[in-house]
Amino acid sequence: KNIVILISGSGSNMAAIVRRAQQEQWSERLHARVSAVISNKADAQGLAFAREQGIATAVLDHKAFDSREAFDAALKVEIDRFEPDLVVLAGFMRILTPGFVAHYAGRLINIHPSLLPAFTGLNTHQRAIDAGCRFAGATVHQVTAELDHGAILAQAVVPVLPDDTADTLAARVLTQEHRIYPQAVAAWLRSQG
Ligand code: GRF
């Protein structure tokens, strides 16, 4: 099975999945591997990590396309070169068109840094702090045409501490993301038989 991971920045969630695949020997035990890491940003730091791991990489700069549909169509061609069984969005900061989402229905997942359905969208940590939340966290979910609304696959909860800033809370959540995302990918692969 081929896993294609899409990133836009540090790619720490992608790296966590790659490392877990190596540690748990997914290629032998799940017949699955991370076949490609694709980014919309040429300077995404995660690309260097993927290349070091010998994983194929590609960059599609969304600014080189004159519409969201044109970018998504080119992205789909690039992704399908790797015949993906699962497409993993990991810090991929693009809203995808319904046509793209429909093409990957049921095999497109994302991680969002909040306890969905609370705090869809951006700046989730500051919003949780401003709302006086005692807990925050992350959610792995199926991607549907409605942003941050697909079926929930996994969640992790962390406490919000009185002196938390968005950065300290983000760091606490990110640690949990690196635990639940690889776990959710492996569970998804096992569910596919
Ligand atoms: C993380 O907060 C993740 O929840 C969100 O993007 C942020 C950075 O992720 N999707 P990564 O380090 O690029 O994996």
From TrEMBL:
This is Phosphoribosylglycinamide formyltransferase. It is an enzyme of class 2 (transferase). The lineage of its organism: Bacteria, Pseudomonadati, Pseudomonadota, Betaproteobacteria, Burkholderiales. Residues 1-185 form the Formyl transferase N-terminal domain. CDD domains: FMT_core_GART. GO terms for cellular component: cytosol. It catalyses: N(1)-(5-phospho-beta-D-ribosyl)glycinamide + (6R)-10-formyltetrahydrofolate = N(2)-formyl-N(1)-(5-phospho-beta-D-ribosyl)glycinamide + (6S)-5,6,7,8-tetrahydrofolate + H(+). The active site is at H112 (proton donor). InterPro entries: Formyl_transf_N, Formyl_transf_N_sf, GART, GART_AS. Keywords: Purine biosynthesis, Transferase. Catalyzes the transfer of a formyl group from 10-formyltetrahydrofolate to 5-phospho-ribosyl-glycinamide (GAR), producing 5-phospho-ribosyl-N-formylglycinamide (FGAR) and tetrahydrofolate. Pfam families: Formyl_trans_N. SUPFAM superfamilies: Formyltransferase. (6R)-10-formyltetrahydrofolate binds at R68, M93, R94, I95, L96, N110. GO terms for molecular function: phosphoribosylglycinamide formyltransferase activity. Its EC number is 2.1.2.2. GO terms for biological process: 'de novo' IMP biosynthetic process.
